Each structure stands twice: as structure tokens, then as C-alpha cells.
Amino acid sequence: DVATLRQVLPPSTAGFGNASNPKALLYFWKFDLQNRSRPAANMNQQFIGINVYLSEGNRGAVAVDHRAAQGSTVQDAIIWANDASAGLFGGAGSGGSHVGVTVIGGRFGLNFADTQPVPTAVGFTLINQTCAGIVYCGGMAMTVVGTTIQSHSAVADRGYAAIVAGVCSVVLCTIKQRSFRADTEVN
Questions:
Q1: For the chain, what is the HEC assignment?
Q2: What is the pLDDT of residues 141-153, one digit of tens each?
Q3: Residue 10 and residue 124: Cα distance in Å, rounded?
């Protein structure tokens, strides 16, 4: 059920088909006078209560790219990623956070390979990603609190991992993962 406030990417939209070159449907940014991206200055940009539907055939699509700092958030949203690259790309850290987001499908639920320092994800539900629920590659700890990661997808890659991270604090989370030998559940 898609809520009244929503963004929809139609099936097989031109420019969103290349999984090797992901492209965001919604991109938040801050540029300086030389037109260079400055995510540390990307402050107080909020995406709240808007759902996103990425239709099939958009393997390179990312619903929201929101690498940002203080006061910035993606909050109270549902993202249907289907066969897309990711639901959410770019972590909000340095005083920002992403809260209460559900991502269904996609290769990655949260792809924080490019993020602000110390990103925070609270109250997420990540369902049926094919590669990983969360990917984080930052140099400082990411905090994940009150999050459920569930993969029972029949199309999950054999190398599926709920969380792929260097430094990560995981607090009060539930991970339900389908093993290729037997079903397992880790709490």
C-alpha cells in the first residue's frame, strides 16, 4: 500500500538501468561556489513521511541519496526497492540520523559506503535485500539501534550478509536470515 505522499520511478526508466553506476531518484546536496559537493555542509535537509516506489527494471536506481550532517534525516518512509540497487544511500552523521525507514527489496537496504562520520540508523526494517541489509565503509563507528533485518528472499545471493561493516555498534536489533543450509534466526 503506497501512501498518498510518494515518489514513483516508472518501470525500466532510462538512466536507471545500470547496476554498476547507481543513480538516485532523489538526491540531497550542498555545493560550494566552485560547484563541488560538500556533504559536511549539507545540514537541516529533511525527507519525512514520503514513500518511494522503484518499479521493476531499474537495477541502477537508488531511492534516496542523502549523505548529510546535523539536522538532516530521512524519516518515517517506506521504500519499495524491488530489483533496484539500494533503498537509501549515503549516511547522515555528524549530528544527522535516519529514523523509522522500511526498505523492501533491492540489492542493499542501506548502502552507507559513502557517508558522513558516525552515521546513525534507528528503527529500520530491512526486508529481502539480495546482497546485504546494511553496508558501511566509514572510518568511525556507525550506530544501528532498534533495527530488524530479515532476508527470506528466494533470490538472495549466496554471499548474503545482514551487515557488512568495518566499525559498527549494533544495539537491540533482530536479524532473521535464511541460511542456505537451514533457516536460522539470530537475535
A1: CCCCCEEEECCCCCCCCCCCCCEEEEECCCECCCCCECHHHCCCCEEECCEEEECCCCCCEEEEECCECCCCEEEEEEEEEECCCEEEECCECCCCCEEEEEEEECCEEEEECCCCCCCEEECCEEECCCCEEEEECCCCCEEEECCEEEECCCCCCCCCEEEEECCEEEECCEEEEECCCCEEEEC
A2: 888 888 998 886 5
A3: 25
Question: One-letter amino acid identity for 70?
Answer: Q
Pairing of strands 132-136, 120-122: unpaired
Q: What is the tens place of the pLDDT at every residue in 44-71?
A: 999 999 999 999 999 999 999 999 999 9
pTM above 0.85, yes or no: yes
Q: Which three cell numbers stand for residue 76?
A: 518515517
CB 86 within 8 A of CB 111: yes
Conformation bin of residue 34: beta by default, left when phi > 0, alpha when psi is -120 to 50:
alpha
